[in-house]
UniProtKB/TrEMBL annotation:
Chain ranges of the DUF418 domain: 234-393
Pfam families noted in UniProt: DUF418
Organism, scientific name: Streptomyces incanus
Keywords in alphabetical order: Membrane, Transmembrane, Transmembrane helix
This protein's name: DUF418 domain-containing protein
Keyword Phosphoprotein annotated: no
């Protein structure tokens, strides 16, 4: 379930108090889409990555490409999406208040919509779905909506800290096993046969893996919930609004994040894919998860600094439209990759090296940026966003910009 996207930002934000979108929030979503695509592409296209094991005999260029994806993207971007989900939650509450609407039934319908989309996504396309997690854990966010920002931050720190420490301790115990995790070649062969078979075997394989998707909801729950709460706190303090944070604060957070998250990511990738032995894999995962929020924070702060630079307008114009259509883009990524990987289309499962796959990822992402920009010039909502908003409002969205 590595990468486990993340649709924490897949929920379209509502408006701010000024009834305008926050370009920084949309740009952050646009960036996160690239990280999600990088991780999910390996899960959908590569049987070894899907099983979380090293591919024996892989070419150096492919092993190195996978190492970079693991270090730079895995476990990082679903946290960013989840943070943005919590931030957007506060904007949606403000939107409901302005309209004198009851927020609770709106959000319950939205959660049901996310859960339904997630079920379809996991069964038909990719069982590493995140939407089910958001649909369920969003209910916790609804119950916690009145807590203070300070309480939200403390609660998030405890939840994620305990989660990360427990995983790291379990990984340390596993490091005493000299045999490591090993490769279940039979399971790999079964997956390859199923996904290259026909549409029926693909569907059956996804159904067989559905319990893993449910397990993934449970495993990801602490990290997602912690990020939700941090986003809730940040939204209540309007930290992503214009001038919500100073340049010095962003630089300081980015520096600390890189100093903590960088070494953690290096160890995580080295334990997962080498040069460390396989018995270090679970310890590496624990350390990687424990330090992932620091690197995620660094990414967000660095992008916000870029948006304030002389090139900020150009970067924003590219990323923000993709972020506004994040749900549509997320689902489209799964459709494209599943058609390429399975018997739905080209049956390339296990046949494309990671280096070539990353070239494909860049092409798909670039195409999504261009299409999102063109679409946003003509339409207010993406197709999936329009559907989810229709469910949320129990009717078609009004024409004005009440997102």
């Amino acid at each position: 379930m590595a990468g486990l996207p993340a649709a924490g930002g897949l929920m379209s934000p509502s408006t701010s108090v000024s009834a305008r979108r926050l370009p920084g929030v949309d740009a952050l979503r646009g960036l996160a889409l690239l990280g999600i695509l990088m991780v999910n592409s390996t899960q959908i296209m590569d049987p070894y990555a899907s099983e979380g094991v090293r591919e024996p005999g892989a070419a150096f260029v492919d092993s190195f490409a996978m190492w970079l994806v693991t270090a730079l993207a895995t476990t990082k971007f679903y946290l960013l999406f989840s943070f943005l989900f919590g931030y957007s939650f506060t904007l949606q509450m403000a939107s409901a208040d302005r309209e004198n609407a009851n927020f609770t039934p709106r959000f319950l319908r939205r959660s049901l919509g996310l859960l339904s989309l997630g079920l379809v996504h996991a069964v038909l396309l990719y069982n590493g779905d995140i939407l089910m997690t958001y649909g369920l854990l969003g209910l916790v966010l609804l119950c916690a909506r009145r807590i203070t920002p300070a309480t939200a931050v403390k609660t998030a720190a405890w939840i994620y800290g305990i989660f990360g420490v427990v995983l790291t301790c379990l990984g340390a115990l596993a490091a005493f096993d000299p045999h490591g995790s090993g490769v279940d070649r039979g399971k790999i062969a079964e997956a390859v046969s199923a996904y290259r078979g026909d549409a029926g075997t693909v569907l059956q394989a996804n159904l067989d893996r559905f319990p893993d998707a449910v397990l993934g909801v449970l495993i990801m729950a602490p990290g997602v919930l912690a990020a939700f709460l941090l986003g809730l706190a940040a939204g209540k303090r309007a930290l992503l609004a214009r001038d919500g944070t100073s340049r010095s604060q962003l630089i300081r957070c980015a520096t600390v994040g890189l100093l903590i998250g960088g070494p953690g990511a290096f160890f995580f990738a080295s334990a997962s894919l080498g040069p460390l032995g396989e018995r270090w894999q679970y310890l590496g995962l624990g350390v990687g998860i424990l330090t992932a929020p620091a690197l995620t924070c660094a990414y967000a702060c660095l992008l916000l600094l870029l948006l304030r630079s002389s090139r900020g307008d150009g970067i924003r114009q590219w990323l923000a439209p993709a972020g506004r259509l994040a749900l549509t883009n997320y689902l489209t990524q799964s459709v494209i990759l599943t058609v390429l990987a399975t018997a739905y289309g080209f049956s390339l499962y296990g046949r494309m090296g990671t280096a070539a796959l990353m070239v494909l990822v860049c092409a798909v992402y670039g195409l999504q940026l261009a299409i999102s920009t063109a679409w946003s010039r003509r339409f207010r909502h993406g197709p999936a966003e329009w559907l989810l908003r229709t469910v949320t409002l129990a009717g078609p969205p009004r024409r004005r910009a009440d997102r």
